[in-house]
Amino acid sequence: MKSRLFMSMVLIGLAALTLSCASVSDSISQNPMAALQSAARIGEAAVKASQEITQEQEIYLGRSVSARLLAKYPLYNNAQLYKYINLVGAGVAMVSDRPDLPFHFAVLDTDEVNAFAAPGGYVFITRGMLKSVKDEEELAAILGHEIGHVCARHSLKSIKGELWKQVAVITAQEGAKHGGVDPKLLDLFGQATDGVLDTLMNVGYTQPMEYEADRLGQTYATTAGYDPGALRRFASYMQQREQGQDKSLNAWLGTHPTFTARLKQLPAPEKRVLTPETIKLRTNRFRTTARR
Amino acid sequence: MKARIPIPALIFILVLLGLAVGAAWAETLYVQRTKVDIKQGRGAYYPTVFSAQKGEALEVIGQEGGWYQVKTPKGPGWVFGQALAAQKAQSTSPLASLVGKADTSELDKTAGFKGFDRPTEEAYVSKNNLQAQIQLVDRLQEPPFTLAELETFQKKGQVGPMGGGR
Protein backbone atom coordinates (compact mmCIF):
# COMPACT_ATOMS: atom_id res chain seq x y z
CA MET A 1 0.00 0.00 0.00
CA LYS A 2 2.76 2.37 1.06
CA SER A 3 4.88 1.59 -1.99
CA ARG A 4 1.87 2.17 -4.30
CA LEU A 5 1.28 5.52 -2.66
CA PHE A 6 4.97 6.36 -3.01
CA MET A 7 4.93 5.50 -6.72
CA SER A 8 1.80 7.61 -7.21
CA MET A 9 3.44 10.60 -5.61
CA VAL A 10 6.57 10.16 -7.76
CA LEU A 11 4.41 10.05 -10.89
CA ILE A 12 2.52 13.16 -9.80
CA GLY A 13 5.83 14.88 -9.13
CA LEU A 14 7.17 14.00 -12.57
CA ALA A 15 3.97 15.19 -14.20
CA ALA A 16 4.21 18.46 -12.29
CA LEU A 17 7.83 18.85 -13.43
CA THR A 18 6.91 18.31 -17.08
CA LEU A 19 3.91 20.60 -17.00
CA SER A 20 5.69 23.31 -15.08
CA CYS A 21 8.67 23.32 -17.45
CA ALA A 22 6.49 23.37 -20.52
CA SER A 23 4.09 26.07 -19.45
CA VAL A 24 6.60 28.48 -17.96
CA SER A 25 9.05 27.97 -20.80
CA ASP A 26 6.30 28.65 -23.32
CA SER A 27 5.26 31.69 -21.40
CA ILE A 28 8.80 33.09 -21.52
CA SER A 29 9.43 32.38 -25.17
CA GLN A 30 6.08 33.81 -26.15
CA ASN A 31 6.02 36.75 -23.83
CA PRO A 32 8.05 39.21 -25.88
CA MET A 33 5.29 38.85 -28.46
CA ALA A 34 2.69 38.98 -25.71
CA ALA A 35 4.26 42.19 -24.49
CA LEU A 36 3.80 43.64 -27.96
CA GLN A 37 0.25 42.38 -27.97
CA SER A 38 -0.32 44.11 -24.65
CA ALA A 39 -0.21 47.24 -26.76
CA ALA A 40 -2.98 45.83 -28.93
CA ARG A 41 -5.14 48.79 -28.05
CA ILE A 42 -2.61 50.87 -29.91
CA GLY A 43 -3.09 48.85 -33.04
CA GLU A 44 -0.96 47.05 -35.56
CA ALA A 45 0.04 50.26 -37.31
CA ALA A 46 2.03 51.39 -34.30
CA VAL A 47 3.95 48.13 -34.25
CA LYS A 48 4.74 48.53 -37.94
CA ALA A 49 5.96 52.07 -37.33
CA SER A 50 8.16 50.84 -34.51
CA GLN A 51 9.88 48.52 -36.96
CA GLU A 52 10.77 51.38 -39.24
CA ILE A 53 12.53 53.59 -36.71
CA THR A 54 14.50 52.48 -33.69
CA GLN A 55 13.81 53.94 -30.26
CA GLU A 56 17.23 55.60 -30.36
CA GLN A 57 16.42 57.38 -33.64
CA GLU A 58 13.00 58.32 -32.32
CA ILE A 59 14.66 60.01 -29.33
CA TYR A 60 17.04 61.97 -31.58
CA LEU A 61 14.09 63.13 -33.62
CA GLY A 62 12.21 64.04 -30.43
CA ARG A 63 15.17 66.07 -29.22
CA SER A 64 15.31 68.14 -32.41
CA VAL A 65 11.53 68.67 -32.38
CA SER A 66 11.76 69.75 -28.72
CA ALA A 67 14.59 72.16 -29.51
CA ARG A 68 12.46 73.75 -32.25
CA LEU A 69 9.49 74.00 -29.87
CA LEU A 70 11.72 75.69 -27.30
CA ALA A 71 12.83 78.17 -29.95
CA LYS A 72 9.19 79.25 -30.20
CA TYR A 73 8.10 78.94 -26.56
CA PRO A 74 10.38 79.61 -23.58
CA LEU A 75 10.37 77.19 -20.67
CA TYR A 76 8.39 78.34 -17.65
CA ASN A 77 10.92 78.97 -14.92
CA ASN A 78 9.36 77.34 -11.86
CA ALA A 79 11.46 74.55 -10.38
CA GLN A 80 8.75 73.37 -7.96
CA LEU A 81 6.14 73.07 -10.71
CA TYR A 82 8.65 71.42 -13.06
CA LYS A 83 9.42 68.78 -10.46
CA TYR A 84 5.75 68.25 -9.66
CA ILE A 85 4.58 67.65 -13.23
CA ASN A 86 7.48 65.26 -13.74
CA LEU A 87 6.46 63.30 -10.64
CA VAL A 88 2.83 63.12 -11.80
CA GLY A 89 3.84 62.30 -15.38
CA ALA A 90 6.31 59.61 -14.32
CA GLY A 91 3.60 57.79 -12.35
CA VAL A 92 1.39 57.64 -15.43
CA ALA A 93 4.23 56.84 -17.86
CA MET A 94 5.37 53.92 -15.70
CA VAL A 95 2.05 52.14 -16.26
CA SER A 96 1.81 53.04 -19.96
CA ASP A 97 2.54 50.76 -22.91
CA ARG A 98 6.13 52.03 -22.98
CA PRO A 99 7.22 51.85 -19.33
CA ASP A 100 10.86 51.49 -20.37
CA LEU A 101 10.90 54.86 -22.14
CA PRO A 102 12.03 57.71 -19.87
CA PHE A 103 9.45 60.46 -20.35
CA HIS A 104 10.33 64.11 -19.73
CA PHE A 105 7.75 66.78 -18.91
CA ALA A 106 8.07 70.56 -19.04
CA VAL A 107 5.88 73.67 -18.86
CA LEU A 108 5.98 76.25 -21.66
CA ASP A 109 5.67 79.89 -20.69
CA THR A 110 2.70 80.98 -22.77
CA ASP A 111 -0.96 81.80 -22.16
CA GLU A 112 -1.87 79.71 -25.19
CA VAL A 113 -3.89 76.65 -24.18
CA ASN A 114 -2.03 73.67 -25.59
CA ALA A 115 0.06 70.57 -24.96
CA PHE A 116 2.55 68.79 -27.21
CA ALA A 117 4.10 65.34 -27.31
CA ALA A 118 7.33 65.04 -29.29
CA PRO A 119 8.65 61.61 -30.30
CA GLY A 120 10.78 59.77 -27.77
CA GLY A 121 8.84 60.90 -24.70
CA TYR A 122 9.18 64.70 -24.56
CA VAL A 123 5.89 66.16 -23.28
CA PHE A 124 5.16 69.88 -23.03
CA ILE A 125 2.16 71.54 -21.42
CA THR A 126 1.57 75.28 -21.59
CA ARG A 127 1.02 77.55 -18.60
CA GLY A 128 -2.32 78.46 -20.23
CA MET A 129 -3.38 74.83 -20.25
CA LEU A 130 -2.30 74.35 -16.63
CA LYS A 131 -4.60 77.22 -15.62
CA SER A 132 -7.50 75.21 -17.05
CA VAL A 133 -6.68 72.13 -15.00
CA LYS A 134 -8.58 71.74 -11.74
CA ASP A 135 -6.61 69.09 -9.87
CA GLU A 136 -3.96 66.36 -10.01
CA GLU A 137 -6.51 63.89 -11.39
CA GLU A 138 -7.10 66.05 -14.47
CA LEU A 139 -3.39 66.80 -14.88
CA ALA A 140 -2.60 63.06 -14.85
CA ALA A 141 -5.28 62.45 -17.49
CA ILE A 142 -3.96 65.22 -19.76
CA LEU A 143 -0.37 64.02 -19.42
CA GLY A 144 -1.74 60.50 -20.04
CA HIS A 145 -3.25 61.73 -23.30
CA GLU A 146 0.14 63.07 -24.43
CA ILE A 147 1.87 59.88 -23.28
CA GLY A 148 -0.72 58.05 -25.39
CA HIS A 149 0.41 59.96 -28.50
CA VAL A 150 4.00 58.88 -27.82
CA CYS A 151 3.10 55.25 -27.08
CA ALA A 152 1.05 55.03 -30.27
CA ARG A 153 3.88 56.77 -32.16
CA HIS A 154 1.38 59.17 -33.73
CA SER A 155 3.93 61.84 -34.63
CA LEU A 156 6.11 59.31 -36.44
CA LYS A 157 3.16 58.22 -38.50
CA SER A 158 2.76 61.80 -39.69
CA ILE A 159 6.07 61.43 -41.52
CA LYS A 160 5.78 59.89 -44.94
CA GLY A 161 7.05 56.33 -45.23
CA GLU A 162 9.04 57.37 -48.29
CA LEU A 163 11.28 59.46 -46.04
CA TRP A 164 12.29 56.44 -43.95
CA LYS A 165 13.03 54.49 -47.10
CA GLN A 166 15.34 57.26 -48.30
CA VAL A 167 17.12 57.27 -44.92
CA ALA A 168 17.81 53.55 -45.26
CA VAL A 169 18.92 53.75 -48.88
CA ILE A 170 21.26 56.70 -48.30
CA THR A 171 22.91 55.26 -45.24
CA ALA A 172 23.28 51.85 -46.82
CA GLN A 173 24.72 53.10 -50.09
CA GLU A 174 26.83 56.01 -48.96
CA GLY A 175 27.04 55.92 -45.19
CA ALA A 176 30.41 54.19 -45.11
CA LYS A 177 31.92 56.56 -47.69
CA HIS A 178 31.44 59.75 -45.69
CA GLY A 179 33.62 60.80 -42.82
CA GLY A 180 30.98 63.24 -41.57
CA VAL A 181 27.21 63.41 -41.76
CA ASP A 182 25.77 62.76 -45.19
CA PRO A 183 24.17 66.03 -46.40
CA LYS A 184 21.19 64.09 -47.76
CA LEU A 185 20.68 62.39 -44.40
CA LEU A 186 20.87 65.76 -42.67
CA ASP A 187 18.26 67.06 -45.08
CA LEU A 188 15.98 64.10 -44.30
CA PHE A 189 16.46 64.68 -40.56
CA GLY A 190 15.35 68.29 -41.12
CA GLN A 191 12.36 67.13 -43.16
CA ALA A 192 11.34 64.66 -40.46
CA THR A 193 11.64 67.35 -37.76
CA ASP A 194 9.63 69.81 -39.87
CA GLY A 195 7.00 67.15 -40.52
CA VAL A 196 6.46 66.40 -36.84
CA LEU A 197 6.44 70.11 -35.92
CA ASP A 198 3.91 70.85 -38.63
CA THR A 199 1.65 68.14 -37.22
CA LEU A 200 2.04 69.39 -33.64
CA MET A 201 1.59 73.08 -34.33
CA ASN A 202 -0.37 73.52 -37.55
CA VAL A 203 -2.08 70.49 -38.96
CA GLY A 204 -2.81 68.43 -35.87
CA TYR A 205 -3.21 64.67 -35.59
CA THR A 206 -6.09 62.94 -37.30
CA GLN A 207 -9.32 62.71 -35.31
CA PRO A 208 -8.94 58.92 -34.80
CA MET A 209 -5.46 59.56 -33.36
CA GLU A 210 -6.85 62.13 -30.91
CA TYR A 211 -9.62 59.78 -29.83
CA GLU A 212 -7.09 56.98 -29.42
CA ALA A 213 -4.86 59.23 -27.28
CA ASP A 214 -7.92 60.10 -25.16
CA ARG A 215 -8.69 56.43 -24.60
CA LEU A 216 -5.06 55.64 -23.80
CA GLY A 217 -4.76 58.67 -21.51
CA GLN A 218 -7.86 57.69 -19.58
CA THR A 219 -6.63 54.09 -19.31
CA TYR A 220 -3.12 55.03 -18.18
CA ALA A 221 -4.32 57.57 -15.59
CA THR A 222 -6.89 55.08 -14.27
CA THR A 223 -4.29 52.31 -14.10
CA ALA A 224 -1.96 54.65 -12.24
CA GLY A 225 -4.64 55.07 -9.59
CA TYR A 226 -6.23 58.39 -10.58
CA ASP A 227 -9.93 59.24 -10.84
CA PRO A 228 -11.14 57.41 -13.99
CA GLY A 229 -13.62 60.23 -14.71
CA ALA A 230 -11.03 63.02 -14.65
CA LEU A 231 -10.53 63.30 -18.41
CA ARG A 232 -14.30 63.41 -18.97
CA ARG A 233 -14.61 66.08 -16.27
CA PHE A 234 -11.85 68.18 -17.86
CA ALA A 235 -13.34 67.76 -21.35
CA SER A 236 -16.78 68.82 -20.06
CA TYR A 237 -15.27 71.97 -18.53
CA MET A 238 -13.47 72.75 -21.79
CA GLN A 239 -16.64 72.04 -23.75
CA GLN A 240 -18.37 74.80 -21.80
CA ARG A 241 -15.57 77.21 -22.68
CA GLU A 242 -15.69 76.07 -26.27
CA GLN A 243 -19.43 76.72 -26.46
CA GLY A 244 -18.85 80.10 -24.84
CA GLN A 245 -16.60 81.00 -27.80
CA ASP A 246 -13.52 81.30 -25.58
CA LYS A 247 -10.91 82.80 -27.91
CA SER A 248 -7.99 81.42 -25.91
CA LEU A 249 -8.92 78.00 -27.29
CA ASN A 250 -8.56 79.04 -30.93
CA ALA A 251 -5.02 77.64 -31.39
CA TRP A 252 -6.02 74.42 -29.60
CA LEU A 253 -9.16 73.91 -31.65
CA GLY A 254 -7.19 74.55 -34.83
CA THR A 255 -5.30 71.32 -34.25
CA HIS A 256 -7.79 69.24 -32.21
CA PRO A 257 -11.34 67.96 -32.63
CA THR A 258 -13.95 69.77 -30.56
CA PHE A 259 -14.45 68.68 -26.97
CA THR A 260 -18.06 67.89 -27.85
CA ALA A 261 -16.84 65.35 -30.41
CA ARG A 262 -14.20 63.98 -28.05
CA LEU A 263 -16.69 63.49 -25.24
CA LYS A 264 -18.84 61.39 -27.56
CA GLN A 265 -15.88 59.13 -28.34
CA LEU A 266 -14.55 58.80 -24.81
CA PRO A 267 -15.46 55.43 -23.24
CA ALA A 268 -17.46 55.47 -20.01
CA PRO A 269 -14.96 55.55 -17.14
CA GLU A 270 -14.84 52.68 -14.70
CA LYS A 271 -16.33 53.27 -11.27
CA ARG A 272 -13.86 53.87 -8.49
CA VAL A 273 -14.26 55.48 -5.09
CA LEU A 274 -11.22 57.32 -3.81
CA THR A 275 -10.88 57.95 -0.09
CA PRO A 276 -11.35 61.59 1.01
CA GLU A 277 -7.84 61.53 2.49
CA THR A 278 -6.30 60.56 -0.83
CA ILE A 279 -8.23 63.22 -2.73
CA LYS A 280 -7.30 65.84 -0.14
CA LEU A 281 -3.59 65.01 -0.29
CA ARG A 282 -3.44 65.08 -4.08
CA THR A 283 -5.54 68.25 -4.29
CA ASN A 284 -3.36 70.01 -1.74
CA ARG A 285 -0.13 69.21 -3.50
CA PHE A 286 -1.64 70.33 -6.80
CA ARG A 287 -2.87 73.61 -5.29
CA THR A 288 0.50 74.44 -3.82
CA THR A 289 2.17 74.10 -7.21
CA ALA A 290 -0.26 74.52 -10.11
CA ARG A 291 -3.60 76.04 -9.20
CA ARG A 292 -6.30 76.76 -11.81
CA MET B 1 -7.50 4.27 7.24
CA LYS B 2 -5.68 7.56 6.70
CA ALA B 3 -3.24 7.59 3.77
CA ARG B 4 -0.01 9.20 4.94
CA ILE B 5 2.65 10.48 2.54
CA PRO B 6 6.02 8.96 3.32
CA ILE B 7 8.59 11.64 4.15
CA PRO B 8 11.11 10.51 1.48
CA ALA B 9 8.38 10.82 -1.17
CA LEU B 10 7.51 14.32 0.04
CA ILE B 11 11.15 15.41 -0.11
CA PHE B 12 11.51 13.91 -3.58
CA ILE B 13 8.48 15.82 -4.88
CA LEU B 14 9.66 19.09 -3.37
CA VAL B 15 13.09 18.64 -4.98
CA LEU B 16 11.43 17.93 -8.33
CA LEU B 17 9.26 21.04 -8.09
CA GLY B 18 12.28 23.13 -7.17
CA LEU B 19 14.16 21.81 -10.19
CA ALA B 20 11.13 22.51 -12.37
CA VAL B 21 11.03 26.17 -11.41
CA GLY B 22 14.81 26.55 -11.78
CA ALA B 23 14.86 24.88 -15.18
CA ALA B 24 11.95 26.91 -16.42
CA TRP B 25 13.60 30.28 -15.69
CA ALA B 26 16.95 29.25 -17.15
CA GLU B 27 15.88 30.72 -20.49
CA THR B 28 17.89 32.91 -22.84
CA LEU B 29 16.42 35.91 -24.64
CA TYR B 30 18.15 38.22 -27.12
CA VAL B 31 18.35 42.02 -27.25
CA GLN B 32 16.43 43.40 -30.24
CA ARG B 33 17.40 47.06 -29.96
CA THR B 34 20.67 48.78 -30.84
CA LYS B 35 21.22 49.21 -27.13
CA VAL B 36 19.08 48.49 -24.11
CA ASP B 37 19.55 49.75 -20.57
CA ILE B 38 18.98 47.08 -17.94
CA LYS B 39 17.48 48.71 -14.87
CA GLN B 40 17.71 48.15 -11.14
CA GLY B 41 13.89 48.01 -10.95
CA ARG B 42 10.89 47.69 -13.22
CA GLY B 43 10.82 51.21 -14.67
CA ALA B 44 12.74 53.69 -16.79
CA TYR B 45 13.47 55.89 -13.78
CA TYR B 46 15.54 53.29 -11.93
CA PRO B 47 19.34 53.47 -12.23
CA THR B 48 20.91 51.50 -15.08
CA VAL B 49 22.74 48.36 -13.98
CA PHE B 50 24.16 47.42 -17.36
CA SER B 51 23.75 48.35 -21.04
CA ALA B 52 23.38 45.42 -23.43
CA GLN B 53 23.91 45.61 -27.18
CA LYS B 54 21.76 44.29 -30.02
CA GLY B 55 21.93 40.50 -30.33
CA GLU B 56 23.35 40.04 -26.84
CA ALA B 57 22.05 36.95 -25.01
CA LEU B 58 20.48 37.50 -21.60
CA GLU B 59 19.66 34.75 -19.14
CA VAL B 60 16.20 35.22 -17.64
CA ILE B 61 15.86 34.64 -13.92
CA GLY B 62 12.42 36.13 -13.32
CA GLN B 63 9.44 37.85 -14.86
CA GLU B 64 6.82 40.32 -13.68
CA GLY B 65 4.30 42.51 -15.49
CA GLY B 66 5.96 42.48 -18.91
CA TRP B 67 9.43 42.96 -17.40
CA TYR B 68 12.17 40.32 -17.33
CA GLN B 69 14.76 39.97 -14.62
CA VAL B 70 18.04 38.99 -16.26
CA LYS B 71 21.60 38.21 -15.28
CA THR B 72 24.25 40.77 -16.28
CA PRO B 73 28.00 41.03 -15.57
CA LYS B 74 27.08 43.78 -13.07
CA GLY B 75 24.42 41.76 -11.26
CA PRO B 76 20.72 41.14 -11.89
CA GLY B 77 18.55 43.79 -13.54
CA TRP B 78 15.21 44.34 -15.25
CA VAL B 79 14.46 44.85 -18.93
CA PHE B 80 11.09 45.36 -20.64
CA GLY B 81 9.90 42.48 -22.83
CA GLN B 82 9.51 44.58 -25.98
CA ALA B 83 13.29 44.92 -26.17
CA LEU B 84 13.79 41.14 -26.19
CA ALA B 85 12.93 38.13 -28.32
CA ALA B 86 13.46 34.40 -28.16
CA GLN B 87 15.65 34.55 -31.27
CA LYS B 88 18.47 36.83 -32.40
CA ALA B 89 17.36 40.02 -34.15
CA GLN B 90 16.19 39.34 -37.68
CA SER B 91 14.69 42.59 -38.82
CA THR B 92 11.57 42.44 -40.93
CA SER B 93 11.89 46.12 -41.66
CA PRO B 94 10.88 47.13 -45.17
CA LEU B 95 13.89 49.43 -45.08
CA ALA B 96 16.26 46.48 -44.95
CA SER B 97 14.67 44.73 -47.89
CA LEU B 98 15.03 47.89 -49.94
CA VAL B 99 18.77 47.60 -49.87
CA GLY B 100 18.78 43.85 -50.29
CA LYS B 101 19.58 42.96 -46.69
CA ALA B 102 17.35 40.71 -44.67
CA ASP B 103 18.87 41.69 -41.37
CA THR B 104 19.57 45.28 -40.31
CA SER B 105 22.23 44.18 -37.85
CA GLU B 106 24.20 42.98 -40.88
CA LEU B 107 23.49 46.33 -42.50
CA ASP B 108 24.99 48.03 -39.46
CA LYS B 109 28.27 46.17 -39.94
CA THR B 110 28.59 46.48 -43.69
CA ALA B 111 27.40 50.00 -44.36
CA GLY B 112 27.78 51.80 -41.09
CA PHE B 113 23.99 52.14 -40.85
CA LYS B 114 23.13 54.53 -38.09
CA GLY B 115 20.37 56.69 -39.47
CA PHE B 116 19.50 59.57 -37.19
CA ASP B 117 22.18 59.73 -34.53
CA ARG B 118 24.25 62.14 -32.45
CA PRO B 119 26.38 63.50 -35.36
CA THR B 120 23.19 64.08 -37.38
CA GLU B 121 21.66 65.97 -34.48
CA GLU B 122 24.81 68.03 -33.94
CA ALA B 123 24.92 68.99 -37.62
CA TYR B 124 21.21 69.90 -37.55
CA VAL B 125 21.59 71.98 -34.38
CA SER B 126 24.57 73.83 -35.82
CA LYS B 127 22.84 74.49 -39.14
CA ASN B 128 19.72 75.88 -37.41
CA ASN B 129 21.44 77.72 -34.54
CA LEU B 130 19.67 75.65 -31.90
CA GLN B 131 22.63 75.27 -29.51
CA ALA B 132 20.87 77.03 -26.62
CA GLN B 133 17.67 75.02 -27.11
CA ILE B 134 19.41 71.64 -27.33
CA GLN B 135 21.16 72.45 -24.06
CA LEU B 136 17.72 72.93 -22.50
CA VAL B 137 16.66 69.57 -23.93
CA ASP B 138 19.77 68.01 -22.36
CA ARG B 139 18.67 69.47 -19.02
CA LEU B 140 15.17 68.07 -19.45
CA GLN B 141 16.63 64.59 -19.79
CA GLU B 142 17.81 64.63 -16.19
CA PRO B 143 14.82 63.75 -13.96
CA PRO B 144 14.27 66.61 -11.48
CA PHE B 145 13.61 64.11 -8.70
CA THR B 146 15.43 61.30 -6.96
CA LEU B 147 14.13 57.76 -6.99
CA ALA B 148 13.34 58.10 -3.27
CA GLU B 149 11.28 61.25 -3.97
CA LEU B 150 9.39 59.47 -6.73
CA GLU B 151 8.63 56.57 -4.42
CA THR B 152 7.46 58.87 -1.62
CA PHE B 153 5.29 60.89 -4.02
CA GLN B 154 3.62 57.77 -5.37
CA LYS B 155 3.15 56.08 -2.00
CA LYS B 156 1.65 59.14 -0.35
CA GLY B 157 -0.70 59.79 -3.27
CA GLN B 158 -1.39 56.08 -3.83
CA VAL B 159 -0.55 56.44 -7.51
CA GLY B 160 1.82 54.75 -9.95
CA PRO B 161 3.36 51.30 -9.59
CA MET B 162 5.13 52.27 -6.36
CA GLY B 163 1.91 53.54 -4.81
CA GLY B 164 -0.54 50.82 -5.67
CA GLY B 165 -1.06 51.27 -9.44
CA ARG B 166 -0.27 48.46 -11.86
Molecular structure report:
- The complex is a heterodimer of chains A (292) and B (166).
- In chain A, 67% of the residues lie in helices and 5% in strands.
- Chain A contains 14 helices and three strands.
- Chain B contains six helices and seven strands; from the N terminus they run αβββββββααααα.
- The interface between A and B is large, with 90 and 93 residues.
Any chance you could write out the topology, listing elements then pairs?
The complex is a heterodimer of chains A (292) and B (166).
Chain A: H1 2-37, H2 44-52, H3 55-72, H4 79-93, E1 104-108, E2 115-118, E3 122-126, H5 127-132, H6 136-151, H7 154-157, H8 161-174, H9 183-203, H10 207-224, H11 230-243, H12 250-255, H13 259-265, H14 276-287
Chain B: H1 7-25, E1 27-31, E2 35-39, E3 48-53, E4 57-64, E5 67-70, E6 77-80, E7 84-85, H2 94-98, H3 104-111, H4 118-127, H5 131-140, H6 147-157
Antiparallel strand pairs in B: 1-4, 1-7, 2-3, 4-5, 5-6
Search tags:
heterodimer, A: about 290 residues, mainly alpha, 3 strands, globular, B: about 170 residues, alpha+beta
Strand order in the largest sheet of chain B? 6-5-4-1-7
Quaternary structure: heterodimer
Percent of residues of chain B in beta strands? 15-25%
Alpha-carbon Rg of chain B, integer: 23 Å
The gyration radius over C-alpha positions of chain A equals: 23 Å
Instruction: Determine the mean pLDDT of chain A.
Output: 83
Number of strands of chain A: 3
Give the termini distance of chain A in whole angstroms: 78 Å
Helix content of chain B: 25-40%
Structural class of chain B: alpha+beta
Stretches of chain B where pLDDT is under 50 for at least 5 consecutive residues are 92-113
Low-confidence stretches of chain A: 13-51
Tally of DSSP β-strands of chain B: 7
Going across the biggest sheet of chain A, name each strand in turn.
Answer: 1-3-2
What is the number of helices of chain B? 6
Largest sheet of chain B: 5 strands, antiparallel
The averaged pLDDT of chain B comes out at 81
